[in-house]
UniProtKB/TrEMBL annotation:
One Pfam short name: Nicastrin
Bilayer-crossing regions: 393-416
Superkingdom of the organism of origin: Eukaryota
The keyword Transmembrane helix belongs to this UniProt entry's keyword annotation: yes
Record organism: Trichinella nelsoni
Protein name stated in the entry: Nicastrin
GO cellular component terms attached to this protein's record: plasma membrane
Cited InterPro entries: Nicastrin
Originating gene: NCSTN
Keywords of this entry: Membrane, Transmembrane, Transmembrane helix
GO biological process entries: Notch receptor processing; protein processing
Amino acid sequence: MFDDMDYGSSAISSLLVILAVSEALGKDAHRIADLSAKNERQLLLALFAGESFDYIGSSRMVWEMMHNNFPAMDSGIHSEALATLSNLGFLLEVGDLTYSNDSLYMHIDPRSYQKYGSVKEKIDMTVKALREHSSSIQFISDKPLPPSSLHSFLKEDDSIPAIAITGYGSSFTNRFYNSFLDQPRFLNIPEYKKTALDVANSLVKLSLRWLNNDVDVLDPPVVNQTMFDIMTDCFLQWPNFNCTLFLQLSESLPPSWHDMALKALTTVPGRRTFTGLGPEYVILPSRVYSELLMFYFLGERVESGANLTYKTCFEMNNTNPLQNCLFYRELFLHDTSDANNYCICSPVKHSLARSPAFDIADYNYKSGKYSTWVMSLVNNEPTMRIYLVNSPAWQLTVFLTGIGLFFVSLFFIHVITKSSHLLFSDSLVAV
């Protein structure tokens, strides 16, 4: 609702963890590929948009998977299905980590946990592994699963083991969630960085363990703390922070998008995570730059050179439909004029953040299965009229005071009238 008035710190807190995990996993790409081929297990990192509006992003993903059409591209050209619901062996979600106070919690769906022995076994194994990496994390198995994207998946197939990691336990602790006060200035940045890094490194180890048939691997990669600090400052403190990272990433965008992306950063600094209608919501910092960073972290450099252009990289997309290629400059150089250029090809893809209700021809809008929200925004400069009513005691005081003054006035009028022959005598008139 407050699309131009807040930074969406609560949503950014989990986004940064996924980006940190991507950065670490990208440094171990060859081992991941070998383990994946050997054990026939894969990793799928997903970022959802529109979750506050009845899980638009996650429900869209599930719907596409059920129709063997994930991911469906915005252009209408459907690529080969990369995954279906039957391919999902485990779901792990990172939720809001703001105001965690160094306490982390694992939430599950207690019904499926008790219903399926295989679900209980996999969840218990994962909980044990996470506790080995982070002893402070707590497991909650007797409470219902809190609001989470996992609901979209479990609603269709509750036999999928699923865990949500959050910074709150039995009750929600972020009183600023999705409000105009959901801003970095209310967030303890150093404390958040420490918590997020611990979670990210734990998830990196857990991801490699999953690929290795639930056996820990030696020397897992760790998150680059310098990179994480830069990303945190860029996503949470822009434009107060001189974010060179975003400016350099903008060079990877098509020419038609480049100026729009910079405009989104400079003219609407409060718009970070809102998913809305209209062209102004297509290029949002959280969406564009998170995708560009995941490309950079998880992709493979296939060509480099100072004279390399965006057009050269774009033409590579025709060679392999399962990957996309983008143009990048070397990041973090003070003098970008001497930076080398790269074509990075990555399997990173995106799909529509649109409710399936609008793509189903005979959808029953009374069913409530999919989100049918409309967009309602608050004006950036709202006006307010306040009507004040006095308390009963004050009203009684004013009433009695008025009566008192009335009788005092009558008394003075009576005195003046009775003494008028003295006050207005003939001698005074003669004078």
